[in-house]
Design goal:
This protein is of the alpha/beta class. The protein is built from 27 helices and 19 strands. The strands form three sheets. Strands 1, 10, 13, 14, 15, 16, 17, 18 and 19 form a nine-stranded mixed sheet that branches. It has an eight-stranded parallel sheet with strand order 8-7-6-5-4-3-2-9. A two-stranded antiparallel ribbon has the order 11-12. A hairpin with a 7-residue loop joins strand 15 and strand 16. The longest helix has 28 residues. It is globular and about 105 Å long. The two termini are 30 Å apart.
Length: 700
């Protein structure tokens, strides 16, 4: 499956939030009230199941960190409780005679305001479903949840059936003496969370057209069921229907394959709209009372719905924009030296690389060394919005940092993790690379259930099991403490066009595939397979695999000389500094340490605010390197200092103190690529990007 972008889910989140508003305001009111019943009492009931399935989809998939989602939900619940305290006082909530008991139950089950029940439902159901999914398949968990949903159904839209039995009536009346509804974390939420997890574990539908027809058929069933129940007068409430899980599942599956671009703004706005819309209902009614427009803004339900929706969207939009402005990095004003990161270029590169993947493969973004100097958090969030849900890092610390950013992604640690830290691998749902039998045994002794990928050394001779001794791997698959989820190797000369190197890469491939066939022939599940890195994808795109580990190409710094297709990728990073001061030198004068620069003629030098402590080599001037100022080239001269460097600006008459200096990137019609800069430094772009110092601010 290629990289997936969930723009369809993002868009429907906002639609679902508006559906919730329609439930709480009414939308259509006919003489028979059937318009409101059909639209708000039946069809709009897909909104909350959709929210629950989204939570299950992103937090309960393999590698997902549900505890992070639980803590975030708990925090939002606390904020919402505090936010609605004034309205609780206004409505007399705290003056009720049974307030202590009622308030305690509301806090844990019903919510302290009528729409907040969603939060305790998730807080109760999420850990239960997560524990079940740890030991059982999603389909089995759903089977377990169905009886609870049916029990809740008898206290909701099928309450009329319950009323036919005196025994059931006594049971449910006793329940309702304590709780108000059955739409909670016991009867309602577990099934939809499990359905979300099921969607995450299944491939995309092959025939979306058939799924659309199935969804339409399920909607007809839901409407028929809902209308029949209301005609019979059975519902005590109308949150739960028999056809609702089927409709929710089919709808969610279709939205997952929607190829719309991710829309994080809509995603953020939907949550705010859900939380604040009751306050907006109060605000609209207050405004209507002051203006004497109750007949229009309150009694006319379509206008009431429209007014509350517009006000909710406006407030939510303002809040999201303000929050993003607060999170925005500072402008270049005042910065000494900085890295400019073009996130749109990163998105574009991810899209291009995903289009090059072998059939059935997924992109695994390599995020070693703070995402090759691009900054971990912004890179992860941008790639996640682009449909990337698999990442590789070098260390345990990097894996934990990444997990705290993305609670659901698959994360592979490529480097060594001390076996004593194995419990952290489990705690943060990280997959560890295993490269020899001794290390595997040490991990097995340190913790149970550690997920691992086996590294196979097919010729690089750095880390890995030898394919020449395949029998040595068989005992690992029998180890109950290790969960082998995949195998991989690394092509060490995939960037070379020399015939001998191409032959060597093919030998590596043959050795790896031969080992895989050997293990499969013995009934062993080798899991996900991955061989190519960036140049492996560029030069050997036909190799079938499950993942492709892409690093330097993702950041637009692959060398076009090694493959022309690298030109289709956009540079993501630019490196800039400032002109600190200007000096005029006469012929014969020297500058810098060791008097390394000798002026042959009168010249003007600019001191630039960047040095070798920031990742610029001390001997850069020896290779003919230059920087860009005012769109013109300025040669680097002398020895680079720890914090500054000198450049010759004699031919740039317009240069002034404080101007931008470009070391990597575009300025006017000139450009210095990372490949060119790395050649001046006698190395490769990977080294240049990964050693850019932490003093360099990140500007996105």
């Amino acid at each position: 499956m290629k990289g997936r972008s969930y723009g369809g889910l993002d868009t429907f989140r906002l639609i679902a939030a508006l559906m919730v508003i329609s439930i709480h305001t009414g939308l259509v009111s006919l003489e028979t009230n059937w318009g409101d019943t059909v639209l708000c009492g039946i069809l709009a009931r897909v909104a909350v199941p959709f929210f629950l399935m989204t939570t299950g989809f992103f937090t309960l998939r393999q590698g997902g960190n549900w505890t992070r989602a639980w803590r975030k939900t708990a925090l939002l619940y606390v904020i919402a409780i505090v936010l609605y305290l004034p309205l609780n006082f206004y409505t007399g909530y705290f003056a009720e005679p049974d307030f202590v008991r009622r308030g305690f139950l509301d806090l844990l089950f019903e919510g302290t305001f009528y729409h907040l029940w969603y939060f305790p439902a998730v807080l109760l159901a999420l850990p239960v479903v997560a524990v079940l999914l740890k030991h059982l398949k999603p389909s089995v968990v759903i089977v377990i949840c169905i009886p609870f949903y049916l029990a809740g159904l008898l206290g909701d839209s099928y309450y009329g059936l319950t009323a036919l039995s005196p025994e059931l009536t006594r049971i449910y009346d006793g329940y309702f003496a304590i709780f108000e509804y059955t739409r909670n974390g016991l009867f309602y939420a577990p099934l939809f969370l499990s359905l979300g997890a099921l969607c995450a574990s299944r491939p995309e539908p092959k025939h979306p057209g058939r799924r659309t027809a199935a969804l339409l058929g399920a909607l007809v069933l839901l409407l028929g069921e809902g209308i029949s129940l209301h005609l019979a007068g059975w519902p005590r409430h109308d949150s739960m229907y028999l056809a609702l899980p089927l409709v929710s599942y089919l709808l969610f599956r279709l939205l997952c394959v929607c190829r719309a671009q991710a829309k994080p703004v809509l995603r953020e706005m939907s949550g705010v709209v859900y939380i604040i819309h009751p306050m907006m209902i109060v605000a609209v009614r207050g405004i209507a009372g002051i203006l004497g427009l109750d007949w229009l803004l309150v009694n006319c339900l379509p206008i009431h719905f429209f007014s509350v929706s517009v006000l909710s969207l406006a407030v939510a939009g303002a809040f999201v924009l303000l929050a993003r402005r607060i999170r925005r990095p500072p402008p270049t004003v005042g910065l000494r030296a900085w890295r400019e990161i073009d996130l749109q270029a990163l998105r574009q590169n991810a899209k291009v690389l995903q289009s090059w993947l072998p059939q059935g493969a997924k992109l695994m973004a390599v995020l070693k060394a703070e995402a090759y100097g691009h900054g971990m958090e912004a890179t992860v969030r941008t790639l996640a919005d682009s449909g990337v849900d698999a990442f590789a890092v070098a260390t345990l610390e990097e894996g934990i940092a990444l997990r705290r950013i993305d609670g659901t992604a698959f994360i592979l640690i490529l480097g060594y993790t001390d076996p004593s830290a194995a419990p952290y691998l489990k705690r943060y749902h990280l997959t560890q690379t295993v490269f020899d039998a001794e290390y595997a045994a040490a991990l097995s002794r340190a913790a149970k259930g550690v997920r691992v990928h086996l590294k196979i050394d097919t010729g690089m001779h750095r880390l890995g099991f030898s394919p020449d001794d395949p029998d040595a791997l068989i005992p690992l698959f029998a180890d109950p403490n290790l969960k082998i989820d995949g195998m991989f190797t690394h092509f060490c000369v995939a960037d070379s066009k020399r015939e001998s190197d191409i032959e060597f890469t093919e030998q590596q491939r043959a050795a790896f595939e031969g080992l895989v066939e050997f293990l499969r022939a013995r009934g062993l599940n080798v899991g996900k397979l991955h061989l190519q890195s960036s140049y492996g994808l560029l030069n050997y795109p036909q190799i079938p695999c499950d993942y492709v580990r892409v690093g330097i190409a993702l950041y637009g710094a692959a060398d076009p000389a090694k493959n022309e297709r690298a030109k289709e990728l956009r540079p993501v990073l630019a490196l800039r500094a400032r002109v600190v001061t200007l000096h005029s030198l006469g012929a014969g004068e020297t500058a810098g340490y060791d008097r390394a620069f000798l002026a042959q003629n009168p010249c003007r030098l600019a001191t630039v605010s960047i040095g070798y402590a920031d990742g610029v080599p001390r001997n850069l001037a020896e290779t003919g390197a230059y920087v860009l100022i005012c769109g013109q080239r300025a040669p680097v001269v002398g020895l680079v200092c720890m914090d500054q460097m000198l450049v010759d600006v004699s031919r740039i008459e317009t240069v002034e103190q404080g101007m931008d200096v470009t070391l990597i990137g575009r300025d006017g019609g000139e450009e210095i690529t990372c490949v060119q800069f790395s050649e001046w430094c006698g190395t490769i772009p990977n080294e240049i990007l990964s050693r850019l110092g932490p003093r360099l601010s990140l500007l996105y």
